[in-house]
Amino acid sequence: MQIELNGKPHPLPDGATLEQLIAALELTGRAVAVAVNRQVVPSQQWAAHALAETDKVDVVRAIGGG
């Protein structure tokens, strides 16, 4: 299947979850926020949140600075 990730096409296996996407992006354990179709999905729900064809996913990574 294909989703839109941060505005660009991104292929994923059918039935992939948000948790699997974050792992594939090597962002596990990092401070990130994820929205699917403009709805924020809490990290506690990533393992159960299956993605669907044409979902629009936005991943934002927090970066500290001073």
From TrEMBL:
InterPro entries reported for this sequence: Beta-grasp_dom_sf, Mopterin_synth/thiamin_S_b, Thi_S, ThiS/MoaD-like
- Domain of life, per UniProt, equals Bacteria
A Pfam family for this UniProt protein?
A: ThiS
Stated name of the protein? Sulfur carrier protein ThiS
